[in-house]
Each structure stands twice: as C-alpha cells, then as structure tokens.
Amino acid sequence: MAKYLLLKHYRRSSGPTALPGTDVPMDQWTEQEVADHIRFMDDFADGLRERGEFVDGQALSPEGTFVRYGGEGRPPVTDGPFAETKDLIAGWMIIDVDSQERAYEAAAELSAAPGRGGEPIHEWLEVRPFLTREPSADA
Amino acid sequence: MEDLLRQLAPRVLGVLVRRGADFASAEDAVQEALIEAVARWPEGMPSDPQAWLVTVAWRRWLDHVRSESARHRREQADLDEPPPGPTESRDDTLHLLFLCCHPALTPSSAVALTLRAVGGLTTRQIAEAYLVPETTMGQRISRAKRTVADEGLGGTGDLGRVLRVLYLIFNEGYQGEVDLAAEAIRLARELADRADDPEAAGLLALMLLHHARRPSRFGTDGSLVTLAEQDRTRWDTGAIAEGIDILHRALAADRLGEFQAQAAIAALHADAQSADETDWPQIVGWYDELLALTDSPVVALNRAVAVGEADGAQAGLRALAEVPDGIPRRHAAHAFLRERAGEPDRAAELYAEAAARASSTAERDHLTRQAARLRSGQPR
C-alpha cells in the first residue's frame, strides 16, 4: 500500500538512453498508430481502475513558464517559455499498489504501449515513491 | 442507533455467510436490512435487534438469489448444494475476519475488505483514509469480494494473516475523518476476545501501548517528537495499564510470539517515568527474543539502538555493523549512535543522508533538523 508516481517524459537530458529506433516522435507515426497508442493508454488506466490501483493521471502542456517571487509588493517575476528546455515532463500517473515490484510491473506495462509499426515503444518511465506524511506508529 | 448498527452489521453478515450466502450478495442484503432498520426502528425498537437484522437480511438475500436464479436457471444447482460452511460453533465475526484476510487477497485488498465488511466503514471513508479516489477503493473492495467468492470458503486465512492485516491498518496512521488506529484497536479487541490466542492478545496490547503515546508523538506544529523527548504526562495511563495487563496474561500462556515480544518492549518504555529510567538491558533482552523469532534486519537495527543505550555508543555501533546496508532508518540509527559516541560532524552527515532516504515527511523534517542542530554546534 504505497503510492508511486509514474513520470512520462517528452525529452530528457539525463537518465538512461532510449532503445535504438524507439524514439521516433509521435508526429511521424501514422494516424492509426497514434490512435492505437492513445487507446492503449486509456485501456491501461482503465485496467488500473478496475484493479483498484488508480489514483490520478494527467497530461501536461509541453510549454510552461518559470515564475518566482518578485519581492514585497511586486508582481511575480516570470521567464520563458524556453523552447529548448532539455527536460520536459509529458504527464504522470499516480498508482496505489501493494509493492514496489507491482509498481515496476505497471510501469513496464505502460512502457509497452504501441508506437510506430505497432511495436512496443520501450519508453523509459521514471518511477518514484511518495513520501507518506507520518512514519508508521512503531517508529 | 448508528453505533449499534455498525456494531451489528458484521455479525449479521457473518451469520449470512455461515449459512452459505456468498460474500458479495450477502453484504448487499445486509446493507438493505440496515436501511430498513434506519427507517423502521425509530417507530419501535425490536427486542432483539441482531435477530431482526438477520431475519430481514436473510429474506433479502433469498429474494435476491431467487430472482437471480430465475434468470440463470443453472445457478439452481449451486443453491441445492450449499457450500461447505464452517462448524456452527465458530464465531461469525471471527469467521468473517478470516474470510476478509483470505490468502488469495493482496494485503491492501484484505485491509480494504476488512474495514468495509467487519469495520462497517463506508467506501468513501476508507478511500479518504487511504487517499485514493472513492471509485478506486470501490473497485478494490468489489474485486476482493469476487476473489473471496471465487476462492470459496475453504481456504480462509490463518490467524497470523489476520493479525498482520490488523497491524497494517493500525500503522496506516491518522488521516481523513476515520481514525484507522482506533479502528484497528476495535477490531483487534474483537479478535482477542474471541480467538483466545496469546499473539492476538499481544497485538492488542501492542496497539494499546503505542496508541497511549499518540498525543505526545507530534509537537503543536506537527513535528515528530522522539520517544526520549515526549511529554510523558500526556501518555494515556489507562490504555497503558490495560495494555500491560493484557500482555501479562498473554505471556502467562508461555507461547511467545512476535507481537507479544514487541508489546513487551513497548510496555518497558511505557513503564519508565522518564527516558533515563528506561530499563534498556531488559529491552535488549526482548530484542534478542524478537530477533530469534523473526530474524528480521529491522529488528536487528532497533536492537543496535537499544544496545547503544544499554551498553554505550561503541557497543551500539558494533551491533549496528551486523545490520545490512539498505535497511530503512539505518542511517538515522547510525547518526544517533555517532552523536552519542562524540562524533557530531559524522553524525550531521549521516542525519542529512538519513533525511534524503526518509519515507515520510515527518521523519525527513525531523532528521533535517537534527543535521542542522549539529552543524550549528548545539548539543542535544
């Protein structure tokens, strides 16, 4: 019973390298391949719902703005968007599962989403455990 | 009336299940009976509320099964041959608990089903307590019910499994409108009353003793307060006395188990008027027992800290050396012992590392503060 974040990246500047031939951008797929991919993602989320493991899933716009405190009585300072940002998070899914093993299994299943030619994209997903608020009672 | 219904619901469910009703439809029938009770009891209480509920729920269940079997004729065969049930003498609530902790269920499913079927909590309350959407929790519960129904009544869980599920509920902490720790204590009490098993009693004692310290575990700002620094006047002496009493009676059976040993350690902490008066040598002795029972590296880690208190930091560090790397909280324990050994710089480093590995925000913040305190040169 632990929550995990499955992070999906658009682009990464760190972490493992993609499997050769699997990083073809989606806009270079056929329409049917895109439709199949999206359907797979929806079915995946439905599967998690059915198992009672789904908590949340959201997609993010690729374009964002940096914002910081501008000082007393001043408006927020903004910067960007930066088109060349190396690390872009495409979206996330939060799952509540029995074990880390199960979280990895779900991430691997998501990574098998079909891409070009209907082949699994083998995309790397980042899996991060949530911190609970309180330690267990026997701490 | 709400409390009474909540108390009776699992018993009624237990009766239906024992009579051979399948789990999922029996629960629906009990829910319908409860609704009927809410509508009708205000006009006049039945003399035996439980019997009333059993009668109404059983009738509802039969109605349901008959209409189902009219549609699915083949199910008639199942009806003619009721599934083998447990013996009549077995307590229904107990049986229900074992069913909810069926070996075919994952821990989280067993927890959800137990809270729903035996605890009588609503799906929404359970979802809130575990911070998941209500639909997700609803799915988890109905899936668990299906699993139990499919697996049949044959392979219900063993007592050890029930105890672990209740301890999981207890450890989940205190979020949402439902106090899961109090709920776990309620269930453990029902179990201990019926199971006549020293480990069931040991678990109840352990929960009571931990729960007694709850008011002092967090500061007003929500920060973690260590056992040594807790305000012991805020401990619940009634719960401590009850926990110790239950533990003594359990130990008298001379069948030691993990929960009794853990409760014994908690009792020794609870018994000390101040942290300095803690009987550490005896606590180390209980950790030795616990280690013999479990061979768990987490126990070995806690033992190392206790050895540090009983025999000095160097002895504690030697015991820690036996604990494998990668055990949760090993860095925190190491930091604590290094500070005791007069190595504040090393301790600060280790506290910072421990903070980065903490699995809860309360621990992370506490460990970060320890590192900050040592780096600004303040003693404990």
Keywords:
heterodimer; A: 139 residues; alpha+beta; Alpha-Beta Plaits; four-stranded antiparallel β-sheet; two-stranded antiparallel ribbon; 2 helices; 26% strand; B: 380 residues; mainly alpha; 69% helix
Secondary-structure blueprint of this entry?
The complex is a heterodimer of chains A (139) and B (380).
Chain A: E1 2-11, H1 31-51, E2 54-59, E3 66-68, E4 77-79, E5 88-97, H2 100-111, E6 126-129
Chain B: H1 2-18, H2 23-40, H3 49-71, H4 76-80, H5 92-100, H6 107-118, H7 123-129, H8 134-151, H9 159-171, H10 180-195, H11 198-212, H12 237-252, H13 258-271, H14 280-294, H15 297-311, H16 313-321, H17 330-340, H18 344-357, H19 361-375
Verbal overview:
The complex is a heterodimer of chains A (139) and B (380). With 139 residues, chain A is an alpha+beta fold. Chain A has a single domain (2-16, 31-129), classed as 2-Layer Sandwich (Alpha-Beta Plaits), CATH 3.30.70.1060. Chain A has helices at 31-51, 100-111; strands at 2-11, 54-59, 66-68, 77-79, 88-97, 126-129. In chain A, a hairpin with an 8-residue loop joins strand 3 (66-68) and strand 4. Chain A is globular and about 55 Å long. The two termini of chain A are 18 Å apart. Chain B contains 19 helices and no strands. In chain B, helix 1 packs antiparallel against helix 2 (23-40), helix 6 (107-118) crosses helix 9 and helix 11 (198-212) packs antiparallel against helix 12. The N and C termini of chain B lie far apart (52 Å). At the A-B interface, helix 1 and strand 2 of A face helix 6, helix 8, helix 9 and helix 19 of B.
